[in-house]
């Protein structure tokens, strides 16, 4: 493991799901690189021993550590990227069966402090119809 991996305290996953999700267009619409792309009916990891995807799924995992500005800076960068692509994202999210989410996982540490998700960030996620999930690892 690298030092960078050992210093990770936060993981933000941006996920889109839906049968009509255009998997080949999501990266350019959202502005994030995909870590997982799954097509409905295909096996996870293209391996028959794994379950099949029930719907199309696209996700991007973004990491933050206290050394690199923490979750606040990462969430601010995500929101700024989404603002730039706001009309395209809104158009995509207006499709009936497409659902988006932002999952924030926090790993506690002896130096863990309070983090703030601003009203502006919450407002943008709501406007773009993204659910927000918070959890601890």
Description:
The structure is a single chain. With 137 residues, the chain is an alpha+beta fold. The chain has 5 helices and 5 strands, in the order αβαββααβαβ. It has helices spanning 3-6, 26-30, 70-84, 86-93, 119-127, and strands at residues 10-17, 36-38, 57-64, 99-106, 130-136. A 5-stranded mixed β-sheet has the order 2-3-1-4-5. Strand 4 (99-106), helix 5 and strand 5 (130-136) form a beta-alpha-beta unit. The longest helix is centred in the middle third of the chain and has 15 residues, at 70-84. It is globular, with a radius of gyration of 16 Å.
Outline the secondary-structure elements:
Elements: H1 3-6, E1 10-17, H2 26-30, E2 36-38, E3 57-64, H3 70-84, H4 86-93, E4 99-106, H5 119-127, E5 130-136
Parallel strand pairs: 4-5
Antiparallel strand pairs: 1-3, 1-4, 2-3
Could you name the key traits of this structure?
137 residues, alpha+beta, five-stranded mixed beta sheet, 25% strand, globular, disordered N terminus
The rough form would be described as globular
Separation of the first and last Cα atoms = 18 Å
Radius of gyration: 16 Å
- Structural class from helices and strands? alpha+beta
Uncertain segments are: 1-5
Main beta sheet strand tally, sense and closure: 5 strands, mixed
Percent of residues in helices comes to: 25-40%
Strand fraction:
15-25%
* Series of H and E elements: HEHEEHHEHE
| Rounded average pLDDT | 84
Helix count from the secondary structure assignment: 5
Count all strands and give the number: 5
């Amino acid at each position: 493991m690298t030092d960078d991996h050992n210093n990770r305290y936060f993981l933000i996953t941006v996920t889109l799901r839906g049968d009509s999700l255009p998997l080949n267009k999501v990266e350019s619409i959202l502005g994030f690189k995909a870590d997982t792309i799954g097509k409905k009916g295909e096996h996870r990891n293209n391996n028959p021993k794994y379950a099949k995807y029930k719907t199309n799924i696209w996700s991007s995992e973004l990491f933050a550590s206290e050394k690199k500005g923490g979750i606040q800076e990462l969430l601010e960068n995500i929101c700024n990227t989404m603002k730039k692509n706001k009309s395209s994202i809104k158009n995509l999210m207006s499709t009936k069966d497409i659902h988006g989410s932002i999952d924030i996982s926090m790993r506690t540490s002896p130096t863990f402090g309070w983090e703030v998700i601003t009203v502006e960030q919450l407002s943008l996620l709501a406007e773009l119809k993204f659910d927000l999930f918070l959890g601890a690892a």
